Amino acid sequence: MKLAIKKWGNGAAVRIQRVLLRQINCDIGESLEVEVVDGGLFLRPAREPEYSLDDLLASCKPEQFKLSDGDKQWLDAKPVGREVL
After folding, report:
1. Predicted model pTM
2. Chain mean position to CA 16
3. To bridge 33 with a disulfide, which of 10, 46, 69, 71 should be the other Cys (CB 3.0-4.6 Å)?
Protein backbone atom coordinates (compact mmCIF):
# COMPACT_ATOMS: atom_id res chain seq x y z
CA MET A 1 0.00 0.00 0.00
CA LYS A 2 1.30 3.44 -0.89
CA LEU A 3 0.58 6.50 1.23
CA ALA A 4 1.00 10.05 -0.11
CA ILE A 5 3.09 12.57 1.78
CA LYS A 6 1.24 15.91 1.84
CA LYS A 7 2.23 19.38 3.00
CA TRP A 8 0.79 20.30 6.40
CA GLY A 9 1.77 23.78 7.58
CA ASN A 10 5.57 23.87 7.51
CA GLY A 11 5.77 20.09 7.84
CA ALA A 12 4.55 16.96 6.14
CA ALA A 13 1.77 14.50 6.94
CA VAL A 14 0.75 10.99 5.94
CA ARG A 15 -2.86 9.83 6.29
CA ILE A 16 -3.18 6.38 7.80
CA GLN A 17 -6.30 4.43 6.93
CA ARG A 18 -8.45 3.22 9.80
CA VAL A 19 -8.03 -0.41 8.69
CA LEU A 20 -4.27 -0.08 9.28
CA LEU A 21 -4.82 1.48 12.70
CA ARG A 22 -7.10 -1.42 13.67
CA GLN A 23 -4.39 -3.90 12.71
CA ILE A 24 -2.02 -2.34 15.26
CA ASN A 25 -4.74 -1.85 17.92
CA CYS A 26 -4.52 1.92 17.67
CA ASP A 27 -7.16 4.61 17.07
CA ILE A 28 -7.49 8.26 16.12
CA GLY A 29 -6.22 10.54 18.88
CA GLU A 30 -3.63 8.06 20.16
CA SER A 31 0.11 8.50 19.71
CA LEU A 32 2.63 6.58 17.65
CA GLU A 33 6.34 6.13 18.29
CA VAL A 34 8.49 6.41 15.19
CA GLU A 35 11.92 4.92 14.60
CA VAL A 36 14.22 4.88 11.57
CA VAL A 37 14.98 1.26 10.67
CA ASP A 38 17.08 0.29 7.62
CA GLY A 39 16.36 3.60 5.88
CA GLY A 40 12.60 3.44 6.51
CA LEU A 41 10.16 4.62 9.15
CA PHE A 42 8.78 2.12 11.65
CA LEU A 43 5.62 3.19 13.49
CA ARG A 44 4.21 1.51 16.58
CA PRO A 45 1.58 2.50 19.14
CA ALA A 46 3.04 4.54 21.99
CA ARG A 47 1.85 2.72 25.08
CA GLU A 48 2.29 4.05 28.58
CA PRO A 49 3.87 1.53 30.93
CA GLU A 50 1.50 -0.05 33.43
CA TYR A 51 2.59 -0.12 37.06
CA SER A 52 1.13 -1.98 39.99
CA LEU A 53 1.00 -0.43 43.45
CA ASP A 54 3.54 -3.02 44.61
CA ASP A 55 5.94 -1.98 41.81
CA LEU A 56 5.61 1.69 42.72
CA LEU A 57 6.07 1.11 46.46
CA ALA A 58 9.09 -1.14 45.81
CA SER A 59 10.77 1.74 43.96
CA CYS A 60 10.33 4.14 46.92
CA LYS A 61 13.05 4.71 49.48
CA PRO A 62 12.09 4.28 53.16
CA GLU A 63 12.98 7.91 53.92
CA GLN A 64 10.25 8.97 51.48
CA PHE A 65 7.61 7.46 53.79
CA LYS A 66 8.45 9.76 56.71
CA LEU A 67 5.92 12.49 57.39
CA SER A 68 7.10 16.06 57.77
CA ASP A 69 5.80 18.26 60.58
CA GLY A 70 3.53 19.96 58.01
CA ASP A 71 2.13 16.57 56.93
CA LYS A 72 1.41 15.64 60.55
CA GLN A 73 -0.32 18.99 61.19
CA TRP A 74 -2.50 18.51 58.13
CA LEU A 75 -3.46 14.95 59.11
CA ASP A 76 -4.33 16.03 62.68
CA ALA A 77 -6.29 19.16 61.64
CA LYS A 78 -9.95 19.44 62.52
CA PRO A 79 -12.51 19.84 59.69
CA VAL A 80 -13.19 23.46 58.74
CA GLY A 81 -16.16 22.94 56.44
CA ARG A 82 -18.42 20.06 55.52
CA GLU A 83 -15.71 17.46 54.90
CA VAL A 84 -16.75 13.86 55.18
CA LEU A 85 -15.02 12.14 58.10
Report:
1. 0.52
2. 22
3. 46
